[in-house]
């Protein structure tokens, strides 16, 4: 390493103000957490705490949290990402805001794309009282990761979270969202893993030519309680699903949404669905609708549905379709529709057990 001589240091000390500013600006780009006029430029390995004293933090180059280390964004921190930048987490990341003093994560002005917050395997994240807005995918999770989101507001992120487990394991990664809002996204896609939603509001929008904005989980296990979801939920290849006291709302009045609970088992209870509910196809597994109001129809294929105390209304054609069920139970339920509405059972030699379902026509 070349150590500046005293003469060199003296020459630097006599630079004109413009030259000094250029030197400081260059140093901000080449040294992690370099401060310049109340701005902290970030690159390279980061850990420890960011506090409001360093605001704003601007990520200008490749930045990561090393394995075994922790980065904590404390209350009042404002972090911005320049074009094409992101944060790679190999250890732990926390954003610990407070009520009325949140952590804010944004992209810099004029930025069109960023790389998001990305994890290696077995990483942990916690966002509390955090406000986030971004132009692309917010978070990309790998197998074994856990993320806890509490009292936070994620907005305008087309793809809020993308999570992946190559073996479709429902313990491959875990996302827990409590008392939070995810607004104005297009989809939340996943393979395997688990998503828990409690006392939260999730709103999707149409965009990117996607016909079904909403949750798309390939083998993902969903557990939603006391929450509102404006958009679809499609779950092919089978995660276990439980929806209790939830409202699934259409994005627009002209398009009914769809909930497809397909796989190892499902439970839709005390909920309102402004659209259609699809159940199946998996033999030998029970899929239950109990005490629900469904503004559409129930379509059950190759599964064992139990439909009790439900109201299905404003049906355009068939209110209930039971196809290829081993055992089907419908009781205490009402199906309202047009004159062409009917209950269709196509179970081959397997008789469906229909206990006093009511079919009303206009």
Write structural notes for this entry:
By secondary structure, this protein is mostly beta strands. It has a domain at 8-114. The chain has 2 helices and 42 strands. It has a 28-stranded mixed beta sheet that branches. It has a 14-stranded parallel beta sheet with strand order 3-5-8-11-14-17-20-23-26-29-32-35-38-41, with no helix packed on it. The chain is elongated, with a radius of gyration of 26 Å. It starts with 5 loop residues before the first helix and ends with a strand.
Entry keywords:
42 strands; disordered N terminus; single chain; 362 residues
Brief rundown of the structure:
With 362 residues, this protein is mainly beta. The protein contains 2 helices and 42 strands. The chain has a 28-stranded mixed β-sheet that branches.
Q: Estimate what percentage of residues fall within beta strands.
A: over 45%
Sum up the overall morphology in one term: elongated
- Our measurement of the CA-to-CA distance between the termini, rounded to an integer number of angstroms, reads 87 Å
Please mark out the parts with pLDDT under 50 across 5 or more consecutive residues, or reply none: 1-31, 347-353
Quaternary state of this entry equals single chain
In which range does the helix fraction lie? under 10%
Mean pLDDT: 77
Our count of helices gives: 2
Question: Which structural class best describes the helix and strand composition?
Answer: mainly beta
Q: Supply Rg.
A: 26 Å
How is the main sheet built?
28 strands, mixed
Give me the count of strands.
Answer: 42
Q: Layout of SSEs?
A:
Elements: H1 6-13, H2 17-30, E1 34-36, E2 39-45, E3 48-50, E4 57-65, E5 70-74, E6 78-81, E7 86-89, E8 92-96, E9 103-107, E10 116-119, E11 124-128, E12 130-133, E13 137-141, E14 146-150, E15 153-155, E16 159-163, E17 174-178, E18 181-185, E19 187-191, E20 194-198, E21 201-204, E22 214-218, E23 221-225, E24 228-230, E25 232-238, E26 241-244, E27 247-249, E28 257-263, E29 266-269, E30 272-273, E31 275-279, E32 286-290, E33 293-294, E34 298-301, E35 304-308, E36 311-315, E37 320-323, E38 329-331, E39 334-337, E40 343-346, E41 353-355, E42 358-361
Parallel strand pairs: 2-4, 3-5, 4-6, 4-7, 5-8, 6-9, 7-10, 8-11, 9-12, 10-13, 11-14, 12-15, 13-16, 14-17, 15-18, 16-19, 17-20, 18-21, 19-22, 20-23, 21-24, 22-25, 23-26, 24-27, 25-28, 26-29, 27-30, 28-31, 29-32, 30-33, 31-34, 32-35, 33-36, 34-37, 35-38, 36-39, 37-40, 38-41, 39-42
Antiparallel strand pairs: 1-2
């Amino acid at each position: 390493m070349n150590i500046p001589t005293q003469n060199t240091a003296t020459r630097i000390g006599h630079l004109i103000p413009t030259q000094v500013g250029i030197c400081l600006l260059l140093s901000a780009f080449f040294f992690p957490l370099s401060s310049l006029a109340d701005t902290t430029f970030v690159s390279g390995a980061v850990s420890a705490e960011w506090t409001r004293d360093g605001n704003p933090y601007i990520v200008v180059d490749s930045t990561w949290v090393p394995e075994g280390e922790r980065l904590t964004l404390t209350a009042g921190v404002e972090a911005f990402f320049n074009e094409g930048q992101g944060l790679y987490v190999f250890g732990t990341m926390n954003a610990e805001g407070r009520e009325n003093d949140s952590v804010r994560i944004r992209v810099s002005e004029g930025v069109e794309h960023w790389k998001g917050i990305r994890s290696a395997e077995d990483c942990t994240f916690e966002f509390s009282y955090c406000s986030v807005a971004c132009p692309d995918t917010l978070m990309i999770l790998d197998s074994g990761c856990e993320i806890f989101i509490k009292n936070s507001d994620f907005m305008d992120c087309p793809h809020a979270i993308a999570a992946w487990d190559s073996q479709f394991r429902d313990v491959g990664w875990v996302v827990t969202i409590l008392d939070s809002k995810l607004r104005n996204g297009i989809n939340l896609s996943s393979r395997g893993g688990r998503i828990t939603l409690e006392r939260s509001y999730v709103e999707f929008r149409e965009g990117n030519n996607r016909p079904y904005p909403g949750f798309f989980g390939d083998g993902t296990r969903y557990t939603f309680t006391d929450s509102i979801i404006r958009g679809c939920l499609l779950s092919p290849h089978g995660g276990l699903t439980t929806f209790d006291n939830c409202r699934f709302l259409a994005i627009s009045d002209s398009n009914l949404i769809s909930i497809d609970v397909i796989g190892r088992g499902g439970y839709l209870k005390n909920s309102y669905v402004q659209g259609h509910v699809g159940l199946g196809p998996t033999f030998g597994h029970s899929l239950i609708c109990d005490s629900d109001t469904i503004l559409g129809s129930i379509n059950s294929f190759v599964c064992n549905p139990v439909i009790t105390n439900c109201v299905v209304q404003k049906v355009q054609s068939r209110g209930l379709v039971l196809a290829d069920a081993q055992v089907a139970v419908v009781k205490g339920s009402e199906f309202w529709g047009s004159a062409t509405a009917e209950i269709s059972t196509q179970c081959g030699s397997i008789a469906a057990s229909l206990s006093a379902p009511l079919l009303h026509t206009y």
